[in-house]
Specification:
- The chain has 296 residues and is of the alpha/beta class.
- It contains ten helices and nine strands.
- α1 crosses α2 and α2 runs antiparallel to α3.
- The structure holds S-adenosylmethionine (SAM).
């Protein structure tokens, strides 16, 4: 049997290493899944340094103001506030996005849609892309950054979300190719708008299921970004009904959904005469995640 790890004496200085260890254990006890990563992100925020630098600062003593800040962040994390909101940032598609409580925290699951969109858009000389429900702008902006000839129009019904999206557009220097519009789905677009791609990660959680979500999501993320009506598909159905007028022949529709909705998504395409060749893409965890269909 190996000896238990030696505890530092109670009066030992609060070094970076010690605080990380203590916070990790504390967050684990409070049910945080990625306790070590969360501890590192919060301490790098409290110290105002990149996370990677903590590894060469293990023996440095954390100052009193930094410890006060860290205590506040850890307390809020144990109350299920997402780390992304606490530090005001989230990495998505290897880019850093500003986030606050007005936008959904970008999820790795959504990178599946972006990867497909980028791969297909690169085949065009000047792809025209419409994103519905842009939130932080993570889909529109990571696409514009990775497809330098793309023009992206990004719509959201939430004005506060568009403030965040605009900050990210400026941060990533794509303001000349990403246009943000405020309104309900296609409503803010000129009637004759035509796109090669229409993409969306819409709200798709059934209203009654919101209560079953983890506290991180349920208590802190905007319900406007989550709630998809009685069966979760209300916005997706409205989108399907209106989208044919805005897609050129041969253009693609890409929609993210929840894995258990795959069959219903395929049915929606089958019922819509405007589309052919539906395909379902899986996310990195192997779950059905994105519908791709081609405009006839
Ligand atoms: C699931 S979030 C996706 C945010 C971001 N695109 C992402 O992938 O992280 C859905 C977004 O759709 C927006 N939204 C909800 N209903 C909408 C509507 N009727 N028209 C336009 N946007 C809507 C919400 O405000 C939210 O920003």
């Amino acid at each position: 049997m190996s000896a238990p790890a030696a505890q530092p004496p109670a009066d030992a200085p609060w070094t970076v290493g010690r605080i990380l260890e203590w916070t990790t254990q504390h967050l684990k006890k409070n049910g945080c899944e990625n306790a070590r990563l969360d501890a590192e992100l919060l301490l790098s925020e409290a110290r105002g340094c990149p996370r990677i630098q903590l590894y060469v600062q293990f023996n440095e003593v954390v100052t009193d103001p930094q410890r006060t800040r860290m205590r506040d962040l850890v307390k809020r994390r144990t109350q299920a506030e997402p780390v992304a909101y606490l530090i005001g940032r989230r990495e998505f598609f290897s880019l850093d996005f500003l986030v606050n409580r007005d936008v959904l925290v970008p999820r790795p699951d959504t990178e599946t849609l972006v990867l497909e969109l980028i791969t297909e858009a690169r085949k065009y000389e000047n792809p025209r892309i419409l994103e519905l429900g842009t939130g932080s702008g993570c889909i529109a902006i990571s696409t514009a950054v990775n497809v330098p000839t793309a023009r992206v129009t990004a719509v959201d019904v939430s004005a506060p979300a568009l403030v965040v999206a605009n900050d990210n557009v400026q941060k990533h220097k794509v303001a000349d190719r990403v246009t943000l519009l405020h309104g309900d789905l296609f409503a803010p677009l000129p009637a004759d708008s035509q796109f090669d791609f229409v993409v969306s990660n819409p709200p798709y959680i059934a209203d009654a299921e919101i209560e079953q979500l983890s506290n991180d999501v349920k208590l802190h993320e905007p319900h406007l970004a989550l709630k998809g009506g009685t069966d979760g598909l209300e916005i997706i159905r409205r989108l399907f009904a209106a989208v044919p007028a805005f897609l050129v022949s041969g253009g693609r529709l890409l929609i993210e959904f929840s894995p258990e909705q795959a069959e219903r998504m395929l049915r929606l395409v089958a019922e819509n005469e405007s589309f052919r060749d539906p395909r379902i893409l899986k996310d990195m965890a192997g779950r059905a995640r994105v519908l791709v269909a081609t405009r006839r």
